[in-house]
Amino acid sequence: MELYQRTASDLARMIAAKAVAPSEVMAAHLARIAKVNGAVNAVISLRDTDVLIAEARAADDAQPQGWLHGLPLAVKDLCATKGLRTTYGSPLFADFVPSKDDLLAARMRAAGAIFIGKTNTPEWGHGSHSFNPLHGVTRNPYDLAVTAGGSSGGAAAGLAARMLPVADGSDMMGSLRNPAAFCNVYGFRPSYGLVPGDAEGDTFLATLATEGPMGRSVEDVARLLTVQAGANPEVPFGRAAEDFADRLRVDLRGKRIAWLGDWGGAYPTEPGILALCEAGLQVFGDLGAAVEALPPPFPAAKLWQAWTTLRAMLNAGGMKALYDDPKKRAQLKPETIWEIEQGQSLGAQAVYEASVIRSRYYAHMARLFTRFDAVVLPTAQVWPFPVEWRWPQSINGVAMDTYHRWMEVVIPISLIGLPALSVPVGFGANGLPMGMQIAGPVGADAAILGMGQAYHEATDWPAKRPPAL
């Protein structure tokens, strides 16, 4: 097997045993990038090859600092990286080179990763289709005519195409999960607070988004999460780190799983997706878990009201300085302007009511989790769509009234910060990948990853069907 085809965990073990050198791993991945990235466009701002090989050679004989020692990593372009161009997909930051790492990047660098470049993302991460005016569109390795999803689309496509051994991402509205489903890899959204952000801007109200890991194996996801996790004392709601890879052995016999499907028809879903997820659920049944279909546990309209209100409020506040400058506003994508203006139109009462809905929903799901170990939903409502589209305008003839309505199925998890793993469920009649999201109560990250590991051992879709690039 070629080095670029191996999982990050395998490579780390080989490097530790001195069976392979970081410079060999780097050379193999750079050659793979040179071969396929031109078609996929997942890795951007790629650093000079000679410099990267020199850094990898220095790692050959260096004392390992952590699990990522000597492994090539491309960081999502929403995360600031010291000395490495970070654009957020925006023309406003076309030439921005940060003077310091964001906390996530600093933790991965400290664990020994060699940053080779960045991974592509939608402008400001808005929308689950990775295109922007600076770097173009990221294509799906399974079909170059369709999207890789987003906003961690570059990360997912880079993993699927074997250009990266493991990857970081971030998730507000499915951005770790949706591209994982579209690209036949794993994406994990941690419990809110487990992977903290930097102490910048608001850190009390802005609890809808989190960073997290992606990989071609659950073990890789768990090991990268261990690197990323741990409280930042400068921000609230922190959670303690643990070694998640040591807790992957889970016996599924007696586990109870609730299947929520399309939320009682509230979430229009393209043909074939639900059936594929139900086939994936059968794997859990075969492993001894009890799977039960449930009616919608909470009104979808209320969740949407709370989500759009809180998301718009945060965008309006966080991006106010850019919007208030007419020259900068002219360079913002229409979807970003829409988010900001929606937020500016809100009153305090609307925000309060949204927070009350969120609070009641959290309590309701906490009670549900006394009966079930996990809930399962499709990761996406649509198959990967043509790269020429900005976003799907309709699903099964039902018009989408916003640029993100077609992603509504991820909101029940994002709104209350549940840990959720998107696992591959195979391929549709169209030959395209799909996934389902397995979510548990806040703090159950290790348990959800353990369930994912059992599923991975029974299926291993990423290895079973890699893209034919």
Describe this structure in words.
This protein is of the alpha+beta class. The chain has a single domain (3-464), classed as Alpha-Beta Complex (Amidase signature (AS) enzymes). It is 36% helix and 15% strand. The strands form five sheets. It has an eight-stranded mixed sheet, sandwiched between helices. Strand 16 and strand 17 form a beta hairpin. Helix 9 (300-318) crosses helix 13 (348-368). The longest helix is centred in the C-terminal third of the chain and has 21 residues, at 348-368. The protein is globular.
Features:
single chain; alpha+beta; eight-stranded mixed sheet; 469 residues; Amidase signature (AS) enzymes
Report a brief summary of the structure.
The protein has helices spanning about 10-15, 20-40, 50-60, 105-110, 155-160, 180-185, 220-230, 275-285, 300-320, 320-325, 325-330, 335-345, 350-370, 410-415, 445-460, 460-465, and strands at about 45, 70-75, 115-120, 130, 135, 140, 145, 165-170, 185-190, 210-215, 255-260, 290-295, 375-380, 395, 400, 420-425, 435-440.
List the helices and strands and how they pair.
Elements: H1 8-16, H2 22-40, E1 43-44, H3 49-60, E2 72-76, H4 103-110, E3 114-119, E4 131-132, E5 136-137, E6 139-140, E7 143-147, H5 153-160, E8 167-171, H6 178-183, E9 186-189, E10 210-215, H7 218-228, E11 256-259, H8 273-286, E12 290-293, H9 300-318, H10 320-324, H11 326-329, H12 334-344, H13 348-368, E13 374-378, E14 394-395, E15 398-399, H14 411-414, E16 420-427, E17 433-439, H15 445-459, H16 461-464
Parallel strand pairs: 2-3, 11-12, 11-13
Antiparallel strand pairs: 1-3, 4-5, 6-7, 8-10, 9-10, 9-16, 13-17, 14-15, 16-17
Helix pairs in contact: 2-3, 7-15, 9-12, 9-13
